[in-house]
Write a structure and sequence with these properties.
Layout (H helix, E strand, L loop, with lengths): L3 H12 L4 E5 L14 E7 L3 E2 H5 L3 E8 L4 E7 L4 E8 L2 E2 L16 E2 L3 H4 L1
Parallel strand pairs: 2-6, 3-7
Antiparallel strand pairs: 1-2, 4-5, 4-8, 5-6
Length: about 120
Amino acid sequence: MSSWQADSLAAMTDALPGADIEPYGSVTDPALLDGWSDLDVVITSRAAFDVQEALQGRLWAFQSTSDGDAQVVRAVLDDGRRIDATIHGAPWMLPAPLPTTTSASTPPLQRCASAAEAT
């Protein structure tokens, strides 16, 4: 039986030829995987890429942080999938977020414009 996590991992591999994509967490152990599990991956790419295209879906919201060595993107897609990606290597592109408020201690959760808001 296939899961959305395994399907998403295969789609990311197809969307990012030449990139190294390493899954970790529940997707690596079918006994731990259920429909509510997110997909955790480490992506190392030598070529720039668009995060939405790599994740094969429209971002509904995301949080992005950097430690200088890697960028961590926690993404929620508009179909409900949740993907956490640690990105090394080449530049990546995220959509422009809607204005948001944030506290000094928490990185902002960015909500992306819906199709209705973008027009």
